[in-house]
Amino acid sequence: MNLKIAICDDNEMDRMKLQSMLTSYYISNDIDLSFDLFSSGKALFQQYKKSGDYQIVLLDIEMPEMNGIQIAEVIRATIDKHVIIVFISNYPQYMQQSFLVRPFYYITKPFHLTDIFDLMNKVVREIESSHVIYSLISTEKGDITINVRDVLFIEAINSRNNLLSFHFYDHQLTTKGTILHWQEQLTEYNFYRCYRSILLNLQHIHYFNLGRIILDNGCSVPISRRNEKELKALFLNTTIQLLNL
């Protein structure tokens, strides 16, 4: 398992301590961890918008400008609905307020190695037992782990060179591959080939409009006439399944 973690804390000693403890976990377990460290919520948000590839965000609640809860709200609303958010705080009274952004866990300072090991064991179990599907894709920036549920659609942009574009809410990633390969991998996860060059995530359909599909972020993609009836039936079935979760 390969997990990328963002650590956001305005206290440098706490950032380094967390990274050291997480590195100890990496050494003790068969889990490949990588880290980005941030001293402010603004810096985290800017980098997250560019890459969008974190599986875990460790957020200090008490920070200047934007506190951790405010940052989490923005991340949930505009970038990543599914990322695992863990709050860090000296003050337990923030816990109830933090529930509004659905944190996975809450650890208090000063934290200890046993706290971090316990946290990571819970995170790994959650990922392994949930329906979260992570996949590794190669880009110009290097190998990036993505949450497949965050992909709106995959588009073949150059079939001769096997170039694909993975479209997320507000950014794209380019990689090599074929639509057919990803169609075989993702069909069971509610992806459907709505057009020759487009593999669509049904969970991000907002509505249908005159031969096109409008997605959550307002972007639209075409749909072939022969696929429209089947796609609408699949979309209805997927919506019912999600309502029953």
Write up this protein:
The protein is an alpha/beta fold and 245 residues long. The model has no long low-confidence stretch (mean pLDDT 85). The strands form 4 sheets. Strands 2-1-3-4-5 form a 5-stranded parallel β-sheet, sandwiched between helices. A 5-stranded antiparallel β-sheet has the order 10-9-8-12-11. The protein has a 3-stranded antiparallel β-sheet with strand order 13-14-15, with no helix packed on it. The protein contains 7 helices and 15 strands. The longest helix has 19 residues, at 225-243.
Short description:
The chain is of the alpha/beta class and 245 residues long. Helix content is 36%, strand content 32%. The chain is built from seven helices and 15 strands.
Structure characteristics:
245 residues, alpha/beta, five-stranded parallel β-sheet, five-stranded antiparallel β-sheet, 7 helices, 36% helix, elongated
Radius of gyration from the CA trace? 19 Å
Tally of extended strands?
15
Count of DSSP-assigned helices: 7
The secondary-structure element order is: EHEHEHEHEHEEEEEHEEEEEH
User: Which sheet architecture does the biggest sheet show?
Assistant: 5 strands, parallel
* Unreliable spans: none
Mean pLDDT: 85
Strand adjacency order, main sheet? 2-1-3-4-5
Any idea what the shape is? elongated
**Helical percent range?**
25-40%
End-to-end separation in angstroms reads 26 Å
Structural class category:
alpha/beta
Proportion of residues in β-strands: 25-35%
